Amino acid sequence: MGSIIVGSVHKVISENKERKxxxxxxxxxxxxxxxxxxxxxxPMTYKRHxxxxxxxxxxxxxNNGSDVVKLASxxxxxxxxxxxxxxxxxxxxxxxxxxxxxxxxxxxHRYNCEWLIKSNKIGFKEFETIQDAIREGYELCKxxxxx
Length: 147
What we know:
The protein has 2 domains: about 1-85, no CATH class; about 90-140, no CATH class. It is of the alpha+beta class. It has helices spanning about 15-25, 115-120, 130-135; strands at about 1-5, 10-15, 30-35, 45-50, 55-60, 65-70, 75-80, 100, 105-110, 125, 140. The chain has 3 helices and 11 strands.
């Protein structure tokens, strides 16, 4: 048995329905084993995680009532009902002369910044100019955009 989130309400769904949603959206299961304690004789257990593109996810409904995949820790939709991945979670291709803003930290980097190069390049937005990024609330990286 799994659960699906509708608004803030958890609804139990059948294992069969959950398997169909996993197949539709390409979500995999991962198990985290938790060791038991010999002193108080608690058995070894496990925690089940649903994973898509390296993110822990859960199933939910969008405003139209269609099945979607959401990030486990928030209401952000990772995959919509048509199966398209939210652009914020796709890997960017870094282009010379462009600027890239991290959507989570709101930091802006040059295309050749060491922090951008080290990152997994997921969750970045491309900007033509620094002014465009500042208008959207991004701060300048202290490594590559020092003033």
